[in-house]
Amino acid sequence: MYSKNKAVKKPLLIVVCIFLLCSSFSVIAGAESASDFTMSDDLMAAVAAGEIDPEKELRQTIGKSTAELTSAITLNGTYFLNNKYSGQYLQYTSSGATSNGGFTSSLGSAVRWTISTTSNGATIRSVNSPTKYLAVSSDTSKITVEFVTVSSGGTIPSRCYWEISIAAGGGCIIKNKYNSKYLCTYGNDDSDGVHTVENLGSSEYNYYNSRVWRILSTSSISGRELQTNTVFHKCDLLVGNSDVYKVRKIPDNAIWSGYSDFQYSGYSSIISINSKTGYITPSQTGTTTIRVKHKPTNTDFELTVKVWSTSVNKGALNTWNDVEGNFVGKWATTPSIFKQKLDPSANFFFNIGCEEATSAWNTALGINMQYTSTESSAKIKVYGGTRQQLQEKGGFLSASQAGLTNITYNCTGYHTYSASSTGKTKLQAKILSAEVYILSRGSSANTTKNVCTHEFGHALGYFGHSYRTSDVMYYQCHEGYTLSSYEKTHLQQIYN
Fold first, then answer.
1. pLDDT at 38 over 70
2. 107 plus 153 within the same structural domain
3. CA torsion 143→149→150→155, rounded to 10°?
4. C-beta separation of 37 from 62 below 8 A
5. What is the total count of domains within the chain?
6. Given the DSSP bridges, would you call strands 243-244 and 279-282 parallel, antiparallel or unpaired?
7. Mean pLDDT on 66-74
8. 466-492 pLDDT, tens per residue?
9. Which one of 63, 212, 255, 276 has the largest count of C-beta atoms within 10 Å of its C-beta?
10. So what's the pLDDT on residue 30?
11. Residue 202: pLDDT above 90?
């Protein structure tokens, strides 16, 4: 995996660190009515889980409104109930219902619920304690949520029955049929607990979202929880130009990982952030770090934002092949290269990889990088060796990283890029120095060529990564080392 980790070296100079890491559902075709769509269908499951907005994404596809889809909900199985606003799971405790965040493997059966649909309504029963049914108080004036014990074969009280419908924007509304109040939670710390309320409120506000529950079968979440190695890319912005921040989700189909599924704190007044859209708006130059908490898993991340100021317009760009950022670099003069193979192992194809990388980028950019034997005078320093050897040279790679590039640069101007719906302003950097670290790990010659060519690309100004899996600048290494036309053009337009 490749990512960035930039730190300030001195005023107006930034170091960029870029590294390389190496219930079943089906859609019923030709459905004639809403009742033809049940929770055994992929689409309906995604709607109930809050992954699909039925009005925006399904109405034209299946011709059914949100209200019509409600009649299609039939829940029978074991599910997670995740609140859209708090991001936390409905949780059973011996003292009552609460909500909590974390990985489901750690939360265990306390956040698993058996839902059964009957003619009287739906019942919600704890997997942790199967005789405990989610219910409301017998006093309809109260908003409390409690558990009622019902032995096997016993009569289920009417206050244990719920009506489940599709929420605006996806997810579900859970309304108790006995007191006609909605299941609800407030806040990210559950300070107000789980209770019921009389009103839904407008769907435009968090007030409404605190009444929305994303219902997902327990079998469907496997492999889809956002992992701790998810990467929040450093965000470089120009004063007066807002943009969405970029994140590489791991896995890429992670459940409940939209912008509003994170909580943002700790950043300075040089920026503001829209928690619904992910847009960051800068107001003055400087650097700040946003503490980002993923609410469903309770995982903490950091997002660094650097705000620049420049009035130099470098002209319009015709293409952009970086999915991670809006910064691209360039050397003022062709850089010299010093390389050193620290690990002499015969199966470490470091020299071959460097030769391929130099040739590929020289040809692509119309430059003539040359090697020098003088380390101190070289603009690009390339080291190949074991993890310990690279650490001694200043390259600190994690256990999963195959390459790392440190870049020192400053901002010299900006480009416009009209083809993008976001990020229309692209910044250009003047690169001042670069250090490249290639890990000796027994990879094939072709894979080593891929890693070297990739890292050289970073050193020449390709700060982010391509989204095409076959590209050399894709964030994961592979055996392909031939630059695509997209990758070449991305830097060619800057160097030309």
1. no
2. yes
3. -40
4. yes
5. 2
6. antiparallel
7. 65
8. 999 999 999 999 999 999 999 999 999
9. 212
10. 30
11. no
How far, in Å, CA of 18 to CA of 475, rounded?
10
Indicate the burial class of 445 (C-beta count within 10 angstroms; 0-12, 13-18, 19 or more): middle
Does residue 104 share a domain with residue 11? no
Residue with more model confidence, 302 or 419: 302
Partner residues linked to 430 by β-bridges: 330, 410
Residue 160 placed within a domain? yes
Q: Please report the sign of the dihedral spanned by the C-alpha atoms of residue 354, residue 357, residue 360, residue 363.
A: negative
Tokens describing residue 327: 């910064």
Upper half-sphere CA count for residue 98 (Cβ side, 13 Å) = 12
Instruction: State the CATH number of the domain containing residue 197.
Output: 2.80.10.50
Q: Alpha-carbon distance 201 to 190, whole Å?
A: 20
pLDDT at 63: 59
- 340 lies in which domain range? 7-22+226-236+310-495
Among 162, 188, 217, identify where a domain stops.
Answer: 217
Q: How far apart are CA 96 and CA 146, in angstroms?
A: 6
**Single-letter amino acid code for the residue at 61:** T
Dihedral sign, Cα of residue 442, residue 443, residue 444, residue 446: negative
Decide: helix, strand or coil at residue 160: helix
- CB of 102 within 8 A of CB of 298? yes
Which residues lie closer than 8 Å to 467 by C-beta, 6 or more apart? 323, 474
Of residues 494 and 69, which shows the higher confidence score? 494
Q: Is 50 exceeded by the pLDDT of residue 3?
A: no
* Backbone region of residue 255 per phi and psi (left: phi > 0; alpha: psi in -120 to 50; beta: other values): beta
pLDDT for res 42: 76
Task: Say if residue 138 is in the same domain as residue 232.
Answer: no
pLDDT confidence of 393, banded at 50, 70, 90? Answer: very high
Per residue in 314-346, pLDDT tens? 999 989 999 998 999 999 999 999 999 999 999
CA distances from 289 to 264, 388, 421 (A): 10, 30, 26
Q: Flag whether pLDDT at 375 surpasses 80.
A: yes
CATH number at residue 408: 3.40.390.10
**β-bridge pairing 212-217 and 76-83:** antiparallel
Tally: H helices and E strands in the chain:
9, 29
- Gap between the Cα atoms of 304 and 250, Å rounded: 19
Q: Is residue 268 part of a domain?
A: no
113 and 13: one domain?
no
251 has a pLDDT exceeding 90: yes
The candidate with the shortest Cα–Cα distance to 438, out of 380, 383, 356, 359, is 383
